[in-house]
Design goal:
Number of helices: 19
Number of domains: 3
CATH class of the largest domain: Mainly Alpha
CATH architecture of the largest domain: Alpha Horseshoe
Largest sheet: none
Helix content: over 70%
Radius of gyration: 26 Å
CATH topology of the largest domain: Serine Threonine Protein Phosphatase 5, Tetratricopeptide repeat
Number of strands: 0
Order of helices and strands: HHHHHHHHHHHHHHHHHHH
């Protein structure tokens, strides 16, 4: 684990109320009949998309365009849903139609940025997000994505400015606080990063990533008791996040809870069996528990996965010494020394 986990914003605000799916679909079907009312048809399409009926949403928007060919929001949402469905060429064409009608439509620029990002065209995505905030300075989702795009380019000052702007526009945006915290953490600004991560946890307590990032920052600065609480919360919320389990295991090893570390690492390895770091730290836990045979097995797996890590071979030497296998211990120490360990 090299860093905290960036927290992207959900791609759109289609979801409002995730319950009452059947009622919503029935309402969507009624709204879709209101061809004279573009807002009703838009709402129908949003409901269909929210309930996983993307094809029905697209069909509804195609019908809406026949009646309202110059409605920019209909075109924009259709382009977005086409892009999400992988129909990139048609989405390109519909995005161009929408922007030809209204070059200042910020949401279309934002959706076009997501569209470019799905295709791996980072420069086009960044340019679209920047157009979005140029036309709407309060478009918080676009500011967050400007920040992420600028960070990916290595322009950290611009990234920080964009994310700070997102927080000013919407102080309740957990994703903005999280990503700002990551940038502060990478710059060594401990207090600032922890403060941002705490805000993210407060705003999004149901997110395992927010608890993980706070716990990781606290662990990095040896605030172990608070880190343990945050990392345990992350593991409880998202028990399939191998990185979160790894961080919790590192904390357990640091405070001497070796049996707990072994248990957590076994769960992480079940999720990510080819991660050599997990096997190495499992061996550390076993070694601390004097379960030497299990430690050797874990180290041999780690050495196969990360053959050039001197720590693995050095600990193998220790384990072989404990098993009174001097020849194998010498070979392991020699290998560690050759690798710079």
């Amino acid at each position: 684990m090299d860093r905290a986990i960036p927290l992207p914003l959900p791609e759109s605000a289609l979801a409002n109320d995730a319950s009452r799916g059947g009622e919503r679909l029935a309402l969507a079907e009624r709204l879709a009949e209101s061809t004279a009312n573009p807002e009703a048809m838009l709402q129908a399409a949003r409901f269909f998309a929210l309930e996983g009926r993307r094809d029905r949403a697209i069909d509804t928007l195609r019908q809406a365009i026949l009646a309202h060919p110059r409605d920019v929001e209909i075109l924009s949402l259709l382009a977005d849903l086409l892009s999400r469905s992988g129909a990139f060429e048609e989405a390109d064409r519909v995005f161009r139609q929408a922007l030809d009608l209204d070059p200042a439509h910020a949401e279309t620029w934002y959706r076009r940025g997501l569209h470019a990002g799905r295709q791996g065209v980072a420069s086009a995505a960044r340019e679209s997000y920047e157009e979005a905030v140029r036309h709407d300075e309060r478009h918080v989702r676009a500011w967050v994505n400007v920040g992420l795009a600028r960070a990916d380019l290595g322009d950290r000052r611009a990234a920080v400015r964009a994310l700070q702007r997102a927080v000013v526009v919407d102080p309740s945006c957990a994703e903005a606080h999280t990503n700002l915290g990551i940038l502060y953490m990478e710059e060594g600004l401990r207090e600032e990063s922890v403060a941002e991560f705490r805000d993210a946890v407060r705003l999004s307590p149901e997110s395992g990533e927010t608890h993980f990032n706070l716990g990781w920052a606290l662990l990095a600065h040896e605030e172990l008791e608070q880190a343990e609480g945050a990392l345990e919360a992350a593991a409880r919320i998202d028990p399939r996040n191998a990185e979160g389990l790894y961080a919790l295991a590192l904390l357990h090893l640091k405070v001497g809870k070796n049996a707990a570390a072994v248990t957590v690492l076994k769960s992480a390895i079940a999720l990510r069996p080819d991660d050599g770091r997990l096997h190495y730290h499992l061996a550390v836990g076993y070694n601390n528990l004097e379960a030497i045979e299990q430690a050797i097995l874990a180290l041999e797996t780690a050495a196969r996965l990360i053959p050039d890590d001197p720590r693995i071979h050095r600990l193998l030497g220790v384990a072989f010494d404990k098993k009174e296998l001097p020849a194998r211990a010498r070979e392991a120490y020699r290998r560690a020394a050759a690798l710079g360990g």
